[in-house]
Each structure stands twice: as structure tokens, then as C-alpha cells.
């Protein structure tokens, strides 16, 4: 019974985690997948402990990766201890929640539970279950590409893709939430699909696995992810290189034949299968293009059609530099530069697990202000290796690399071991290990340009577990029960054993309840945030209060509740002064507590600015508190041009125009193409009677955005027309 619980729980991990999402949460995809993973991990570990009790022995298998994994865990614990934001390091960056210490512990528990409880036959069943989930997701993505998102069908009953803000037809993401994440997921599944196709024994099986393989690659193509494609090509290169050595064509057979005892007919069948796969993949790219080149046959069928589905609208809200968007590679180089600076300042243990969102702002290059994503929050380095280097230092980075190298060396050695004599059973072991290595290489290359999400992180730890179990590379842990006196005490009487079993059951149920409450609190938080954005502070306050009641330890909830209380206090100031006063005090207390406990969290400081500015609407003395908070936030994010702009707005509201002008000049220094800063600066200059400079500054707005209606309107209002000449004077 317990074995079945463990197996079916792992089956749900492989099948349900990539599919699971809901529209009711703050983050629709990753948070749900992480909570489901926590729940299934709790069930698996609980069943595993009960199994050990029932069998009266420690059921822990050793693998070649044990020491590197323990070293990695130790490095993450140390990084968490010395973190600039311990809460984030433990739980992970809120919304995704993947990557924190707790998620890492869950992945490691799943790894050891897998190698200790899953049999070789079950390994292949789980892989097939994972492929089934991937096949469903690939069909989901293919439908999106052709204009019908199953998500829209389920949520609204609409047979279109209009329920998403993103252009899901241009780059699909199905149930993964983002095209690059879907590409990474499918890129790791394609190689096991190749394995099952090559080892299928009947015609029906070959057809089934070939259809699955084609669907996976077609959906993978429709993500148009460059990082994903580079990862897949690297994995494919590794696979073909080893295949060439182990299954030489006729021209290579003389060289290798003395070492291999296999039928030439089998070689021919294997190469035919490989060539069929490569031909089909190439055909898909010829028909539909790829992430690396948009060349496809339809260009010739419809020569007048555009070669890309991407649109770049011109808007007065963006500068000429930003029209069309900054190339993603350029943005990544800037972010990587910031990651290296973080490492230089926190070289040993990094800034703390998952704290990139806060430490990056301390060392964010000013050049980031000149990109289209200048005001985006980057909570990852968009390079898994640099992310570990920045957030966990040389200690965590070294442990991470050690894990990877250890597994790769194991697979390479396994290829040599199973190469000769080539028995069918060992050949399949070798082929499975090879496809898992290809998946791993795909993961590593893709993550050089991105980062792990929940299902990819699960694969990162479980694919090695699959390889060890499938190649008989696990062994029992050499520890006797007598080395643990407490076990002898438990087994001394049956009643003691039953008491311990009851405790395990109760703890398991309690942890499952806690996980559900965490998930439920997030649904209330999502409703509260939506109400706040919709201008309904009363409902926002009620929903956020409910979220806090179910998860009192989440400072993000408390921070947003503080803002909702301040907004509600301002709304009730005239109608209910007493309630307004209570809410005002609550807002102050919540905000101060959050900032005191999380002094390096720039997100909370930004929220505090909004909160105090709302309170300034009630009590004008809060202007100093608001400005002090802005200055503290600037000290944590010194190159953020928007903070200086916001400071200028607040100063202007308090009639401190001279200081506001200085703040705007600093914002423009950091972001020379800052249209809003130029516009505001011109207004302040005009208010201070510096009319000539005001006109000159407003003309700079027109230089950035020719025909800007607001700028032209102000110039007409001031009795000026035209645009600045080369000398900067009016014609």
C-alpha cells in the first residue's frame, strides 16, 4: 500500500505538475506548481517514513551524487544564514516561490525518496507518464499557435486565444506560463521520447512514440525560444556524437567492429530510425521556421506576408530608442554585468539564496535605463550559473558545478561500461543514460540564457535519480538499526511503533493543511491586489486581511495590507474619521514592522513610499516621512531613474520645486531618453519662471518623440511653437 502511494505520488509529479495552474492565484502558473510539489513531497516522505517503520529498517539507497548533493545543500544553508533577506532565501521570491531553501529541500527529499523506493520497471512507467503529460501540453501549445487556446475554452468557453494579454499565437506557452519555460520543459522531454521510439518493439508502439515526438518538437518550435533551441541543439549534438561512436555507420564499422558484437542489420535499422527522426525535425523547421531563423516554406507560398508575427507599434509613451524593443541579448549582457558586481561584493556566500531581485538593484548598471525593460523587476540573472554565483557565492556556485560534473562523468563512464559486449539489456541502459545526458545538456545550455522553473528544477534532480535506478547504480546505505538507539526503542514494543506511526500521520496531515492554507491565502491576496489596482481600497483591505489571517508570516501580504489600510484611511477621512484614524495607525505599524524586519528588500521600500504618500493626503506632516523613505530606497537602488522621478513628483506636491528640478536632472542623467522626466522638468522650470530653459527642455521631448501631443500642447499654451534648432534656440 505504501509503495503504491509513493509510486502514484511520483506519477502525479510527472503528470500533473506541468499541467497544473489556476486563474485564481496571484501568479497563475509557478506558484501553483510549487504548492502542488510541496503537497506531493509531504505525502511521499510521510509514506516513506511509515514504510521504514513497517519494515523495521532504514530504507535509504546511496548514489554517486550523494556527497555533491549534501555539499550543495550545505552551501545553500550557509547562504541563507548570511542572506540580505532571510525570509526570501527560505521561501523563495514570492509568486514563483521556486528556488528558495525549502524548495531545494523538497527536491532533495524527492531525489532520495525516488532512488530508495522506485524500481527499475517503475522508472520506465514514470517516464511514459511524463511523456503523456508533455504530449497533452504539446497539443495545447499547437492549438494556441493556430488560434485556439484551450485555456480560453475552459475559462470563457471561447474558441480563440483572446483571454491572454500576451500574443500566445506568436509564441505559445500552454500550461507553463512563458514560452522559454515551455521550451526548456519540452526540450528535456524530447530525448526520452527518442529513447522510447528507438526501443519500441511493435509497429503500433513506433507509430505512437513517433506521433508523440513530432508533437513535442512541433510545440517546442512554436515557442520560438532561442535559448531553448540552442539547448536542444547542444543536447542533440551530444546524443548523435555518442550514437555515432556506439553505432558506427558502414564507413566506421571496420574501426569499431572488433570491440562490438552486434548485427549489421540492427545497425542499419538504428540509423534508419535516427535519420527518420532528423528528417522529420528538419521538415518541421522548414515548414514553420525556428527560433534561430524564421525561414519557412510559407514565405514562398505567401510572399507578401510578413516573415514575423511580431508587431512594434509606435506610441507617444515610448522613445524612438525604445520603438521595436531592445534586443534581449543586449539586456542579458547588462544584467549579467550586474550579477558579476554582486558576486564581487558578496564573494563567499553571495547575497543570499533567491535575493537577486534586491541585490541587483544595488549594482544595477545605469545602462539598463536605456533598454525597453528599464523599469522591469529582475528577480533572476537570466543565467542560472551567474545567478548561483551572485546569490550563493563561490561556495554555492562550486557545489552546483560539482553536482553537474559528477552526473556527467557518471553517464560517460556508463556509456563505456555498457558498450561492449553489447547485450540488448545493457544497450537499452546505455541508450537511456545517453538520452538523459542529452536532456541534461539541453537544460544546462538553455539555463545559460534563462533560469529554472518548478518542473525543470524537478527534472534537474529526478533525471539523475532515474539514471541511477535504471542502470542499477544505487546501493543500500550501510547503516544498521543498532547504530540508532531510538529505533531499537521504537521497535521494542508494538505500541511504541503505533504511536510513532500516528505522529507521522498527524504531522503529514498537518503539513498538507498548512500547504493548502498557503495556497488559499494566495487566492485572497490575488483578489486584494486586483481590487487595489481597480481603485477599490475597501475590498482590497478585506481580502488582504483574509490573506494575512491564513499566512501571517508572509511580509509581502503585510506590506500590501499596509498600503490598502492607508488608501482606505484616505477614502474614509471625510465620512468616518474614527475608522480612518484606526486604519492610518494600522498602516503605519504594518509598514514599519515590515521595513524593520526586511531592511534590504527594495520592493517593500517602494510599497512604503506609496503607503506614506497616501497618508500624506491625510496628514501633511508625512511628506518628510515619504521623502526619507524615497531616499532610503534610492540608497538601495542608486541607478533607478524612476525613483528620482517619483521623488520629484513628491517634492513638487510640497512646492519644493528647486529640489524637484535637481531630482529630475539626476533622473535624466541616469536615463538620457527619459521622456516623462524631461516633460516634468520643463513644467517645473516654467513654474520657477525659467521660461527659456523650459521651452528648451520641452523641445527635447519633441526630439525624443516627434509630434508628442502633450509637449506641443504645452508649447502652444506657453505661446511657443516649433522644435529646437541645432543650437537649441527657437526658430
What's the helix and strand layout?
Layout: H1 2-16, H2 30-55, E1 61-62, H3 66-81, H4 86-91, H5 101-117, H6 120-145, H7 150-156, H8 179-199, H9 203-222, H10 226-246, H11 250-256, H12 264-288, H13 298-301, H14 328-345, H15 356-362, H16 384-417, H17 424-448, H18 454-470, E2 475-476, H19 485-492, H20 494-533, H21 537-550, H22 555-572, H23 577-597, H24 602-616, H25 622-636, H26 641-653, H27 657-670, H28 675-687, H29 691-704, H30 709-717
Give an overview of the whole structure.
- The structure is a single chain.
- The protein has 30 helices and two strands.
- The protein is mainly α.
- It has a two-stranded antiparallel ribbon.
- The longest helix has 40 residues, at 494-533.
- The chain is globular.
Summary tags:
3 domains, 731 residues, disordered C terminus, globular, Serine Threonine Protein Phosphatase 5, Tetratricopeptide repeat, 30 helices, two-stranded antiparallel ribbon, mainly alpha
Summarize the structure.
With 731 residues, the protein is mostly helical. Helices cover 69% and strands 1% of the residues.
| Whole-number tally of structural domains | 3
Silhouette: globular
Cα gyration radius (Å): 29 Å
Q: Provide the helix percentage.
A: 55-70%
Kindly estimate the percentage of residues that lie in beta strands according to DSSP.
under 5%
Low-confidence stretches: 250-265, 302-324, 420-425, 724-731
The helix-and-strand class reads mainly alpha
Strand order in the sheet with the most strands: 1-2
Instruction: Report the strand count.
Output: 2
Amino acid at each position: 500500500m505504501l509503495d503504491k502511494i509513493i509510486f502514484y505520488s511520483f506519477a502525479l509529479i510527472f503528470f500533473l505538475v506541468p499541467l497544473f495552474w489556476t486563474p485564481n492565484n496571484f501568479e497563475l502558473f509557478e506558484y501553483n506548481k510549487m504548492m502542488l510539489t510541496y503537497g506531493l513531497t509531504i505525502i511521499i516522505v510521510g509514506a516513506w517514513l511509515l514504510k521504514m517503520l513497517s519494515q523495521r529498517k532504514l530504507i535509504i539507497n546511496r548514489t554517486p551524487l550523494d556527497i555533491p548533493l549534501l555539499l550543495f545543500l550545505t552551501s545553500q544553508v550557509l547562504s541563507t544564514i548570511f542572506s540580505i533577506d532571510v525570509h526570501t532565501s527560505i521561501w523563495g521570491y514570492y509568486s514563483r516561490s521556486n528556488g528558495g531553501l525549502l524548495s531545494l529541500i523538497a527536491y532533495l527529499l524527492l531525489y532520495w525518496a525516488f532512488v530508495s523506493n522506485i524500481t527499475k520497471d517503475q522508472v520506465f512507467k514514470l517516464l511514459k507518464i511524463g511523456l503523456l503529460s508533455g504530449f497533452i501540453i504539446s497539443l495545447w501549445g499547437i492549438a494556441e499557435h493556430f488560434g485556439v487556446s484551450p485555456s480560453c475554452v475552459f475559462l470563457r468557453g471561447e474558441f480563440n486565444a483572446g483571454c491572454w494579454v500576451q500574443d500566445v499565437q506568436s509564441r505559445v506557452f500552454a500550461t507553463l506560463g512563458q514560452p522559454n519555460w515551455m521550451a526548456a520543459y519540452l526540450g528535456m522531454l524530447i530525448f526520452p521520447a527518442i529513447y522510447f521510439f528507438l526501443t519500441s518493439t511493435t509497429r503500433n508502439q513506433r507509430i505512437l512514440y513517433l506521433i508523440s515526438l513530432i508533437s513535442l518538437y512541433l510545440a517546442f518550435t512554436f515557442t520560438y525560444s532561442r535559448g531553448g533551441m540552442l539547448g536542444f541543439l547542444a543536447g542533440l549534438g551530444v546524443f548523435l556524437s555518442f550514437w555515432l561512436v556506439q553505432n558506427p555507420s558502414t564507413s566506421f564499422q571496420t574501426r569499431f567492429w572488433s570491440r562490438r558484437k552486434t548485427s549489421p542489420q540492427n545497425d542499419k535499422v538504428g540509423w534508419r530510425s535516427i535519420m527518420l527522426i532528423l528528417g522529420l525535425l528538419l521538415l518541421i523547421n522548414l515548414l514553420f521556421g525556428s527560433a534561430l531563423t524564421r525561414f519557412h516554406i510559407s514565405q514562398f507560398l505567401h510572399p507578401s506576408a510578413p516573415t514575423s508575427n511580431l508587431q512594434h507599434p509606435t506610441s507617444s509613451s515610448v522613445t524612438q530608442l525604445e520603438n521595436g524593443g531592445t534586443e534581449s541579448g543586449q539586456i542579458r549582457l547588462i544584467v549579467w554585468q550586474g550579477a558579476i558586481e554582486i558576486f564581487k561584493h558578496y564573494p563567499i556566500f553571495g547575497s543570499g539564496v533567491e535575493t537577486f531581485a534586491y541585490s541587483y538593484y544595488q549594482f544595477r548598471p545605469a545602462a539598463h535605463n536605456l533598454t525597453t525593460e528599464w523599469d522591469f523587476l529582475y528577480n533572476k540573472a537570466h543565467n542560472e550559473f551567474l545567478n548561483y554565483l551572485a546569490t550563493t557565492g563561490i561556495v554555492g556556485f562550486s557545489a552546483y558545478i560539482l553536482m553537474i560534473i559528477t552526473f556527467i562523468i557518471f553517464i560517460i563512464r556508463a556509456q563505456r561500461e555498457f558498450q561492449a559486449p553489447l547485450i540488448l539489456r545493457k544497450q537499452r541502459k546505455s541508450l537511456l543514460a545517453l538520452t538523459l545526458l542529452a536532456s541534461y545538456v539541453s537544460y544546462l545550455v538553455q539555463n545559460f540564457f534563462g533560469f529554472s522553473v518548478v518542473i525543470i528544477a524537478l527534472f534537474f534532480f529526478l533525471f539523475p535519480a532515474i539514471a541511477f535506478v535504471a542502470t542499477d547504480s544505487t546501493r543500500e546505505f550501510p547503516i544498521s538499526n543498532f547504530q540508532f538507539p531510538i529505533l531499537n526503542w521504537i521497535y521494542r514494543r508494538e505500541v511504541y511503533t503505533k504511536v510513532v506511526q500516528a505522529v507521522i500521520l498527524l504531522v503529514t496531515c498537518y503539513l498538507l493543511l498548512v500547504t493548502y492554507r498557503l495556497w488559499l491565502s494566495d487566492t485572497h491576496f490575488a483578489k486584494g491586489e486586483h481590487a487595489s489596482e481597480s481603485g477599490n481600497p475597501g475590498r482590497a483591505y478585506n481580502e488582504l486581511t483574509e490573506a494575512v489571517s491564513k499566512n501571517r508570516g508572509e511580509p509581502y501580504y503585510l506590506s500590501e495590507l499596509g498600503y490598502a489600510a492607508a488608501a482606505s484611511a484616505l477614502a474614509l477621512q471625510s465620512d468616518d474619521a474614527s475608522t480612518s484614524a484606526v486604519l492610518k495607525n494600522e498602516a503605519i505599524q504594518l509598514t514599519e514592522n515590515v521595513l524593520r524586519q526586511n531592511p534590504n528588500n527594495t520592493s517593500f521600500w517602494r510599497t512604503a513610499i506609496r503607503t506614506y504618500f497616501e497618508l500624506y493626503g491625510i496628514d501633511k506632516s508625512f511628506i518628510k516621512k515619504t521623502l526619507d523613505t524615497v531616499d532610503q530606497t534610492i540608497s538601495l537602488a542608486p541607478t533607478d531613474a524612476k525613483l528620482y522621478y517619483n521623488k520629484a513628483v513628491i517634492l513638487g506636491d510640497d512646492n519644493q520645486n528647486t529640489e524637484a528640478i535637481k531630482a529630475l536632472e539626476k533622473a535624466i542623467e541616469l536615463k538620457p531618453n527619459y521622456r516623462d522626466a524631461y516633460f516634468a522638468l520643463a513644467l517645473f522650470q516654467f513654474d520657477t519662471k525659467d521660461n527659456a530653459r523650459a521651452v528648451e527642455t520641452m523641445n527635447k521631448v519633441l526630439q525624443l518623440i516627434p509630434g508628442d501631443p502633450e509637449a506641443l500642447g504645452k508649447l502652444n499654451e506657453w505661446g511657443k511653437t516649433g522644435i529646437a534648432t541645432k543650437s537649441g534656440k527657437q526658430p
